[in-house]
Amino acid sequence: MPTDPALPDGRPAAEVLAELRALRRADAPTRGGRTFAYVYDAGLDGLDELAAEAYTAFATVNGLDPTVFPSVARLENDVVGAVAALLGAPGAQGTFTSGGTESILLAVKTARDHARTVRGITAPQLVLPSTAHAAFHKAAAYLGVEPVVVPVDPVTFRADAAAMAAALTDRTALVVASAPSYAHGVTDPVAEIAAAASARGVLCHVDACIGGWILPYLRRAGREVAPFDLSVPGVTSLSVDLHKYAYADKGASVVLYRDAELRRHQYFAHAGWPGYPVVNPTVQGTKSGGLLAQAWAVLQHVGEEGYTALAGRVAEASDRLLAGLRSLDGVRVLGDPAAGLVAFTVAGEDTGAPTGAGEDTGAPDLSLLLHLADEMRELGWYLQPQLSFDGLPPNLHLTLTPATVGQVDALLGDLAAALAKARALEPVTVDPALAAFAAELDPQTLGPDEVAAVLAFAGLGEGAGLPGRMAPVLVLLDALPGPLKERLLSEFIGSVFRI
Question: Taking Cα atoms as reference points, which of 265, 468, 366, 341 lies closest to residue 40?
């Protein structure tokens, strides 16, 4: 019985590449310093080309078996060795991974298996501050570990070391600190948390996916940086993404352990089948050597002095941005940003006077904040909206890179104009009756028609595409209970990837 072909007969390479380039033009720019989330731009000429050539040279190398492809072992030992030298302790061992989520998942898996085999824990818990990355909750869900979430200080947004210590139990397999946390860019009290964990015989992981590579170079550039890495007593593992402030292409991270004995709990080995003997250090089995090669090439090319200079440029951009934000009426910077991440919120009324660091500007206005994000997007800037959570205010998040140094003045000028325009717009509100109705819904029992109706109400119905302005959608999401919000987000993403 004839069927429609899955693919065309074949198209010329030039035509295929032209279509890819056309698709790419619809994306947010990844270079130039105007997209303040998701991308890390060193602003160095030739770096992208170097990474691409290194990837191409190793694209067909299979990282599954370093005995067949010994170059994989050499490159990984070099990369992990550099990370260990920067962040480690004598004897530290690690693994190259595909990103922060995989590094975190492996750290949680290691802690779970260590707790099971060494301490006899069969129902392990993961103690983490409420600002810890969502990847820890993903790992807990995948691995059958119970997350125990501890509220952070509502003023500094840092983990409460005493509360974290009080949350430790005989079932705790791992405790987490961030250096810094993604949402607010502040560094948790790592030394205090690690000491409390050590006193209970509990492993302690530092999520330095963002800060792990830049914080040491900020210190070398003359900035004050508190100890956070494996040199801190009680810290037993750490994750650092090289595709962030090491400026490698996406798909490059390292998870580091205090010693090889701890790292062995990360590995999966299986000899109970008739095929080749399997031992996987990471979640992936087969993987291209290209991502490892490009990360190695970028580290080798930029070098020690290069990374110190780049960290200094990020610090310069951060200083100028923070000063500018604090001069704007009603704007409040959240916490004490440590490593290129800045979050700020906006009060509903124009106070008529500039505010200083940490000063109260009045209640954050979610509608105004999201109008501001939309206005900035129309001007060609992407600032990442973050909704309210557990008493923590909604805000706009910015990730600074060396490429943003030359953009700070333009950003601040457009921000002031966009804020004035946003204040003149009609506030976006949610019908209280709708919010009350949504609060009674059970997301687990919603049928497809009901989910489709809610998505359509939010402007995210099937075939509708993304709305031009996100403020109405995000205001509604902010008002929904967490489980319903998660269900709708999952359904929406499912509709995006539906053929």
Answer: 341
Question: What DSSP element (H or E) covers 493?
Answer: helix 482-496
DSSP 8-class letter at 405:
G
Q: Tell me: pLDDT of 492 over 70.
A: yes
Tell me the two tokens of residue 480: 């929904």
3-state SS class at 470 = coil
The mean pLDDT of 294-303, rounded to a whole number, is: 98
Q: How far apart are CA 256 and CA 219, in angstroms?
A: 21
C-alpha dihedral (37, 472, 132, 214), degrees to nearest 10: 10
Q: Where does 171-322 show beta strands of DSSP type E? A: 172-178, 203-207, 237-241, 253-257, 268-270, 278-280
Tokens 């966009």, residue located:
418
pTM beyond 0.85: the answer is yes
DSSP strand pairing (268-270 vs 341-346): unpaired
Instruction: Indicate the burial class of 149 (C-beta count within 10 angstroms; 0-12, 13-18, 19 or more).
Output: middle
Instruction: Give the type of residue at 199.
Output: A
d(CA 108, CA 462): 37
Query: 114-125 pLDDT, tens per residue?
Result: 999 999 999 999
pLDDT-derived band of residue 358, with 50, 70 and 90 as boundaries? very low
What's the full length of the chain, in residues?
Answer: 499
Nearest one of 332, 345, 40 to 211, comparing CA atoms: 40
Q: Which residues sit opposite 392 in a β-bridge?
A: 389
Neighbouring C-beta atoms of residue 226, cutoff 10 Å: 14
Quickly list H helices, 59-167.
Answer: 70-87, 100-119, 134-143, 161-167
495: Cβ–Cβ under 8 A, 6 or more apart, which residues? Answer: 455, 460, 462
297 phi/psi in degrees, rounded to 5: -65, -40
Q: What is the dihedral of CA 191, 192, 194, 195, to 10 degrees?
A: 110
- Residue 150, token pair as written in the block: 């501890």
Determine the pLDDT at residue 222.
Answer: 94
Q: Which residues contact 252 (CB under 8 A, 6 or more apart)?
A: 96, 98, 99, 241, 242, 243, 246, 291, 292, 294, 295
- In the chain, helix, strand, coil percent, each to 5? 45, 15, 40
